[in-house]
Amino acid sequence: MARHTRETDGGEKPLKRLLELFIVSARLGLTSFGGPVAHLGYFHDVYVKRRKWLTEEAYADLVALCQFLPGPASSQVGIAIGIGRAGLLGGIMAWIGFTLPSVIALMVFAAVLGEFDIQHAGWLQGLMIAAVAVVAQAVWSMGSKLASGRTRGSIAVIAAAAALLLHSAFAQVVIIAVSGLIGWRLLTSDVSRTVQPFHVPISRSAGIAFLLAFAALLIGLPLLRAAGHRQALDLFDSFYRAGALVFGGGHVVLPLLQQAVVPTGWVSDSQFLAGYGAAQAVPGPLFTFAAYLGYVSDPSPHGIFGSLLAVAAIFLPAFLLVAGALPFWNAIRAKPGFQSALAGINASVVGMLIAALYDPIWTSTIGTPADVCLALAAFGLLTIWKLPPWLVVVLSAAGGTAIAYF
After folding, report:
1. What DSSP line would sit under 184-225, residue for residue?
2. Average pLDDT over the chain, rounded to an integer
């Protein structure tokens, strides 16, 4: 199967590519504020527009796939891109880079800064405003390509309205499924693109093994836990199930985490709320809240083991599912009928980005005319001046600090 030139460069040395993946994803992990939808905007800007590691269509198809899978969608997209670039090690390296900054920050918070209130700092407000601009840029760019024309545009608008009105955990799965059916029926003549395969260096037999491992752990860990109570095993099981059973990731996982650690006495209510506030303040995936909870739950003097165990457990389902699904993805997405369905799904993803841009990103961030001005300035720096997102994030943090003093 031919490799897509945007996704692979045969002349690159594997170690060089792995190092590049770590550096790029770590930079994203340091600057990606605003939650999973904002992360997809940052990924789109860096991986698609700037580095051109994959096409607009391939990126949209990966987003659609990860929206169907339980777990942290943005982290799964990053893992998939890493696998496409450098195999399973590439997926691990992309995940480590994107996750490590917030894991370290939350471990430090758990150890040292638990009594500090940083939720209302001006610089944090500026960082959240930067996320508004990044998501707006992604909506603008992806919408012009994936929601053009009457039918696709209508699907995007309807999906946005549905996402704003329906707030259940499975609402986005229903929206995507219905949009796929509409695309399958109405966009047959509209789909004319040639699907270039996304490079997946994993065999189908290995993919099946990953999916079986996911199911075996989901079923087997509770049985092992019932056979004998050991806190490390109990902790791993609780966080694995939280990562395996939540669609959409982000804030949806919070009730499962609260149920796992508070009634057991591992974490108090006040500790849980303090850690949640800290998780809101750091970049990267909200699933790294597990680093804080694992640290506090660990009875050992330093809590580092509990922190790393919880992080590994909550992200492991995401890795197993992505590695298991990718080997079959090219064959499925290349079928003409599924291409039509994907066209509808991708239009609905644009609609859900629009909805998320309003709620929770805009509603929880923009409160004053000064906030609007800073968001417009950040959007202009991204789209007109073409500044890199990390620089826009730094400037927005400075702007938020300045606003707080006036």
Report:
1. HHH-TTT-----PPPP--S-HHHHHHHHHHHHHHHHHHHHHH
2. 86
